[in-house]
Every structure is written in C-alpha cells, then in structure tokens.
User: What shape does this take?
Amino acid sequence: MDVVPQALLPTTRRALLHRLAVGQAEGRTPSLVGAVVRDGRTVWTGARGMFDDHQPTDDVQYRIGSLTKSFVAVLVLRLRDEGLLDLADPLERHLPGTPAGALAVHQLLAHTSGLAAETPGPWWERTPGELRPDLVDVLGEQPVRHPAGRRFHYSNPGYALLGALVARLRGAPWGEVLRREVLEPLGMTRTTLLPQAPHAGGFAVHPWADVMLPEPLEDTGVMAPAGQLWSTAADLCRWAAFLATGDDKVLAPATAAEMRRPATEPNDREWTAGYGLGLQLIRRDGRLLYGHGGSMPGFLASVWVSEADDVAAVTLANVTSGMNTTAIAADLIRIVAEHEPRIPEPWRPLGDVDQELLALTGPWYWGAAPFTLRLRADRALELTALGAVGRSSRFSAEPDGTWTGLDGYYTGERLRVVRNADGTASHLDIGSFVLTRQPYEPATAVPGGVDPRGWHADHRYPERLR
Assistant: This one.
C-alpha cells in the first residue's frame, strides 16, 4: 500500500518551532518565517516576530535577493530546451554589443565566466537602478576578472546579462516573461518584482546594541535579475516542490535535475559546496542540499531541498545581517528527517525483463579489479566497484543499444557490449576500458594481451622482463 503523506507529529512541530524561535532570538531579526515541504506539499509553517500579537503569515512578502537567480536560470534553460540557444553559445550571438560577448551562456549560469562579482559603484543594492540605466553601466570598462572557465567566481552582473538575454530572445521584459512562463503556471501569484502588501519592511540591526535602522527598498533596474524578486513562504514552498521534481508546464524533470548537478564535477568525494546551473549545492549534516540563499539590504532568504529525504525548507527574515537563514533551513530539514525519516517505496520486481540484459548482470573485472553490474528499471545499468577503490557509475539506455554514463568518472561516456559470433557477451567497452567476465579473461579481449602462462604462482620474472 502506498504511503499517504501525513501531517507532522506534534513533537516534530515543536522542534521546528523551537529552532525558528532560537533563530529569531539569536539572529536578532524583527521577524523570521519558516516552512517545510515534504512529498511535494507544505506540511508546516511557523513564524516568530518581535510583536507578540502580530506574527507574519506565510502570505507576507519578503525580498528574496539572489534566489532570483534560480528563476532566471529556469528561463534560460527553457530557451535552450526550445532550441533557441545552446548553452555553449557566446553571449554575443544572442545579445550583441556588451563587453562580455565572448563569454558562454553556461559560464554565466554557473558563475565560471570570470566576470566581476559586483558593478562599478555605487553599491547597486541600496541605490536606484536609474544610476545604471544600461548593461554597460553594470559591467564597467574591464568587467572580466579571471580567465573564463577557469574558476568559480560569483557574479551578480552575470545574471543581469542573462536577464537581458531572456528579454532579447522573448521580445518582452524578463519580469513579464517570468510571470507568464513560470510564476502563473506554478500558481506563484505572490511573487513579484516590486513589493505588494502585505510585505515586510527591511531593517538593519546595530551590531552592538538592540536598535534598528530601516533599509531603503530600491528598484535595481537592469540589475534586477540578480536579486530583485519578492516572495512569500507559501510561494517558495511551491518553488521548492518544483525544483525537486520539475513540472512539464515549466521545465522538464530532466532539465530540473540538470540544474542541481555541479557545473564542474568536484574531484573530492567529500566536497562541501558547489554550484550548478542557477542552484547552489552544499553538504550539511551528512546530506546533500540544493537550492539558493539570498540577501538584500534588510532581507535574508533561503530555499533548500534534500533529495534523499524528499524534504525542503524555506526561511525568510527581514534583517540585513547577523543570522544564517541557510543554517536554519538546513536544521529544519534535519529535524524532519530525523524525527520522521522517509519511508522507502516498497520493493517491486521489474516485470518483463530482456533475458540478454539479465545475462549481463553479475561480476565483471577491469583487469583484476572486481565490479558488479546490476539491471535497473528502463533497461538502465549500474556498475559498482567491489574493491576499496573503483569507478562506479549509473548508465541510461540509448536507442542504438548502448548506454550513457550518468555520474562519476564515466559521465557522458558510452558503454558497449561486445559480443562473440554466437551472440554471447565477450566483454564490456566503456570509453575504451575493457571489462571481462574473469580477471584478464578472455585474453583476446584484453588490450595489450595477457601472458600466455596465465595466472600462476611463479614469482620469477619472465625472460622478457629481465
């Protein structure tokens, strides 16, 4: 029987509220709103504020800062999926006339373009957009700080360029495109470019005294794609659910999954932070989270999703600094995952199975290194190293009878089954690496051949190696 999502237990709700209350008190923010999504629906919302008789609801707007970038990335990927651009295209091909024309679209999405982190002064987040009316005004005379593609360097002007790219290809302002193509289909009616009541006011809190200062709420103009949006906890719960699964009305599930893969595959298995296509990735409490944080003067925001737990969390605060909304959101996810761990789907057999594929399962060897090959749904294969080290990977089936690597070292590489004259499998070929059914056997399939004596216990070197 399928498990129907249930409301959270009282003890879980109490722990969530406690974490939110601690965050508001220790972070000294006028208000803090939190929400949790599980199995694609909102299961908890909470709020703490400085007025006992007036707590914000999940319908109060807060400025969400750089969370805006994940929305812009969706618009760009929609253009790619429609064939209107390629992520490898130079910006100049679609948005001519900028000093950044040689940079690739995917480099802008992933912050590997080398562009400057910020605009030339004055500080764009606290001043009117009229001070920077054109794209050249946010780039400056020498906007590139690092060779393109060499390193991650977060760039707010890079997303201003992407917003302008969307506007150019759609023939409408990027905010209008966002409303029409993303917000309305997802039911996010309370996400807007400018604040709409009810909305929170933004404040700075003095670092050494419990006093506040209101922050200006400026329209940032051409820099808006880097951090302009306002939203609510309720709307951002819808956004988190979309990021987790995609929605064919907006972005196919496969493209949504592409957003949360590291743009540059980390070499270290224990990496703690990365960036995909418009989404940040972090490791907290032993789990991988994807989403984005945001800040603007007077506001902090976070949306984070744990795919393994199928839990997401939203946090919104109206303070400039002094608290970590990402840490609080990660704690909300952890609390739910620990108090009410995800119930796995029941095991079910595959059904009809291609016997030729079934015959491929079991042990294989790359030289003397042992692996096992498992058959998964939709003719997918999973190669798992059995030794202390080894290159494991999942492979998706292709129409031509090959498989394409989905992760790890073999990402994008092709797996082929090389067969004998009688149709039985001789060996596997993965990007020229040969895996055989026995260690270095059959010898005819092994590149470079095998010593004709085969495996033996004679420790003397062959004559040819003396």
